[in-house]
Amino acid sequence: MDLLLIARKVFRHKLITLPILALTLCGAVYVLAVKDPVYEASSSYVLINPPAPPTAEHVARNPALGRIRSDNPYTRFSDQGVVIDVLTRSLGSEMARRTLVKAGADPRYTVASGAGFGSSSPIVQVTGIGPSPAAAIRTANVVGHAVTGELDRMQRAKNVDSAYRISALQVEVPDDARLRASGQLRMLVGVLALGGILLFVALSITDALDNLLRERRMALAPDESALDNLAFLDPEADLVEPHLRTNGRREHVPAPDEQRAKS
Q: What would the pLDDT profile of 67-94 be if each residue is shown by its tens digit?
């Protein structure tokens, strides 16, 4: 089915196809012109392990070290991905999102591990979302500050001394934001695809109805082949009365003058 044939079908069934095309066009205009764009800014933090707890020799030389809470339960894991998972769950809760929204963040932010393809990584990836570059950068800064604060809070809750806590060092600053075209483009493609599907279904249904009506008209119409056979009959044969036929041949009918002469 070429484009010219499709255009003819669309024009022939314009009462159905034109509203679908109009709705599709309105949806595309809404996505491109009305819907707010989405910007994102990224920030990342690397987790740094604290120093090892003081040994018995250190405590013997400095007894004050024995009174310091140096046992950090979060340093017992060989993979810091566990700590990142705890941060992700804590900052992804509904209560945390409401708190950060009050602080000026967009609720669509994400906090995740920087690991990829199953590898472990001590990097926490923060992605700020916003309708403008400034809003996305502000969200990344607010959420990044919350990451460092939550990391310190969960260790302080275990009475770990500040010198023996895991710290977060910022390695990527959210100084710029980029337009996330995937979301807007995905929606635009979805609108166009939905319009195309509706147009295809409408054309298929109308074609099926046209074919059904055409078949019914042909079934009710007279047999054209029989009419063609009648056209080839001897035109004089239709003028002969049936009772004048004998064995399929016409008998000679005397003219009126001949009948008077015979009488």
A: 788 889 999 888 888 999 999 999 999 9
Task: Please report, for the chain, how many H helices and E strands are present, in that order.
Answer: 9, 7
Q: Give the pair of three-digit tokens for residue 239.
A: 């003028």
Q: Give the span between the Cα atoms of 217 and 213, in whole angstroms.
A: 6
- Whether the CB-CB separation of 125 and 113 falls below 8 Å is answered with yes
**Looking at residues 143-162, what average pLDDT do you find?**
94
Given a cut of 60, whether residue 6 has pLDDT beyond it is yes
Instruction: Scan for tokens 């700590």, then name that residue.
Output: 83
Q: What are the residue boundaries of the structural domains of the chain, listed by start?
A: 1-36+182-263, 39-179
Q: Which two tokens stand for residue 21?
A: 């095309």
Which residue is listed with tokens 């100084």? 175
The tokens for 230 are: 């009648």
Q: How far apart are CA 240 and CA 246, in angstroms?
A: 11
Q: Which residues of 118-137 are buried (b: 16+ CB within 10 A; e: fewer)?
A: eeebbbbbbbbbbeebebbb
Query: Measured in whole angstroms, how far is the alpha carbon of residue 263 from the centre of its chain?
Result: 104
- pTM for this prediction: 0.60
